[in-house]
Amino acid sequence: MVAASKEMVVYCFDTLVAHYTSEHVPAPAFDEGQHPLFVTWKKVINGGEPRLRGCIGTLEARGLVNGFKDYALTSALRDRRFPPIQAKELPQLECTVSILTDYESAANYLDWEIGKHGMILEFTDPDHTRRSATYLPEVAAQEGWTKIETIDSLMRKSGYNGPITESLRKRVHITRYQSTLYTMHYSDYVTYVKRTRGIAPLIGVRAYH
Fold it and tell me: Strand, coil or helix: what is 62?
């Protein structure tokens, strides 16, 4: 069982820093494997609650090295909900990597635990459009949502804007899953790089000009 690790987050920061500096990405310090994965970027301003800046991943298993390399950039630069992260934001960033495990079909839309399960919600709306969306296991707890609020939010995330009724909720299919995750702030990344490589990341030399 592969668990999310510090080295995976470091590789995501390395990848994003290299994007701004045009340097090569240092080799990853974790073993290759095949797993579903997500990369989440948040921005911490003045010690406040971290705010989402991008979160994209894959619910299908794929190679960890290329997966984290791809999704580190995709989530930072191409999450359509947010403008691309700029180099000047790096010192305020926090990165979380998630590896998804234990996929199971839920018996109904309430058959999952807040803080333990992520969910893939799938349904056909009244206009016969198939829709789906997912939340990682930590989202509902962080938002302070009830189960019904989480389900309703997922239905909105899927693009459905019509009325949400109890009969519609009962028609959704839920695949629940669990995850391991690791979170690191940019300042901890800099400390790690200095300790393990003897130099600070090159950001700031060219990236802000």
Answer: strand
170, 85, 86: which is closest to 121 by C-alpha?
Answer: 170
Q: 148: which residues sit within 8 A by CB, 6+ positions away?
A: 110, 169
- Among residues 96, 103, 59, the alpha carbon closest in space to that of 76 is found at 96
Tell whether 203 is covered by a domain. no
Q: Tell me the residue ranges of DSSP E strands in 14-50.
A: 34-43
In a domain? residue 67:
yes
> What pTM was computed for the model?
0.89
| Residue showing tokens 């495990």 | 101
- How many angstroms separate the CA atoms of 152 and 175, rounded? 16
Q: How many domains does the chain have?
A: 2
35-73 pLDDT, tens digit per residue, is: 999 999 999 998 888 999 999 999 999 999 999 999 999
Clarify whether residues 94 and 183 are in a common domain: yes
Closest by Cα among 179, 61, 44, 186 to 116: 179
Question: Which value, in Å, is the radius of gyration of the alpha carbons in the chain?
Answer: 18
